[in-house]
Amino acid sequence: MTEPYRGGCACGAIRYETTSEPIVELHCQCRECQKRSGTGHSSYLTFALRSEMTITGEAKEWQVAGESGNMKVHAFCPNCGTPVYLTFVAMPELIAVHAASLDEPGRFKPQFVTYGVRGLAWDTIDAALPRFERMPG
Ligand SMILES: [Zn+2]
Ligand SMILES: [Zn+2]
User: Fold this and answer.
1) Can you give the residue range of the structural domain that contains 36?
2) Domains held by the chain: number
3) Is residue 129 included in any domain, yes or no?
């Protein structure tokens, strides 16, 4: 069994922890991820079961349709504004956390890049990673 994945927002009001392993780890260069991160992409670890993620603190949530058309529920800390995790209306059992919110962000192991079609010339990501123009599949 691996060390739990733990993390939270910048001020510490929102914390999460899970003993599950992520099913997908990726960078996303879609416009939504650019807007919310303030830079060229966002980076996520996606876990299969929201029910196996313990979250403490009261995150504020808002919804937006991603470029894929899927509604995403973004959760951020109302105190410090850090985006911490997101869930998906159509797949309510999944939960994704932002890579740099981990207590040990070095554990993030990106597997591929989504929405490479929106990638900006100045946002260089490891060229060895597979790139999908939009979503895979
Ligand atoms: Zn906070
Ligand atoms: Zn995105």
Assistant:
1) 5-118
2) 1
3) no
Q: Tell me: the pLDDT tens digits for 107-127?
A: 999 999 999 999 999 999 999
Q: Give the model confidence (pLDDT) of 3-55 as tens digits.
A: 999 999 999 999 999 999 999 999 999 999 999 999 999 999 999 999 999 99
Q: Is residue 24 part of a domain?
A: yes
Tokens, residue 11: 């001020």
Give the Å distance between the CA of 29 and the centre of ligand 2.
Answer: 5
132 occurs within a structural domain: no
Which ligand has its closest atom nearest to the C-alpha of 60? 1
Give me ligand 2 centre to Cα 26, in Å: 10
- Nearest ligand to the CA of 70 is 2
- The two three-digit tokens of residue 71, written as one number: 């509604």
Q: What is the helix, strand, coil percentage profile of the chain, to 5? A: 15, 40, 45
Supply 57's token pair.
């603190």
Q: Note if the pTM is more than 0.85.
A: yes
Q: Report CA(47)–ligand 1 centroid distance (Å).
A: 22
